[in-house]
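This part of the workshop introduces the protein records we will be handling. To make this concrete, we reproduce a full record directly below:
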Amino acid sequence: MAVENKEKAKVAIPKDWTVLMLRLASFLATASATLVMALNKETKTLVVATVGNTPIKATLTATFRHNPAFVFFVIANGMTSFHNVLMIVVQLFRHKFSDKGLCLVMIPILDLFTVALASAGDGAATFMAELGKNGNSHAKWNKICDKFGTYCDRGGAALIASSVGLVLLLVITVLSIIKLLTKPKPLNNVTLP
């Protein structure tokens, strides 16, 4: 009896390691983007004016909390990371549930919602990063990346990591939909006595 249980446990382990590894890589990318942007902070003391021969200095700090787009970016990537961890757990322990195909349908739907959330966060943060790098002469917004270079470099790294995680999540979603479409459907042959 114990031998049969061990054999059943071995059979129940998920065989689709491709999606699992892609999801793990997506988690690592979005979690690193979340942490890099959330911990991104740079303080500089700048000369803002000169009175006579005396420079007047101001200490300025650049942090993600000063920009709502970057706050949304951190929240969106945090939620995407949580989604990926939750889907990894579901995929690893799916054999313990009798969902009758519910996971097969719900996972692509939740993945699509997560792709939309992550792409919105990436888009908002990318727009603000472009504005910080080049400014906007029409609106008289000055660029800040010439003064806060490290802050901008870390923000760019977070954007790249998040974009990689988004692309991986998009690939996972496509694979999940293909799996849903190619899943053999049971025959409803009912024999009456």
Notes: The chain has a mean pLDDT of 84. The chain has five helices and two strands. Residues 19 and 27 are 12 Å apart (CA to CA). Strands lie at 41-51, 54-63.
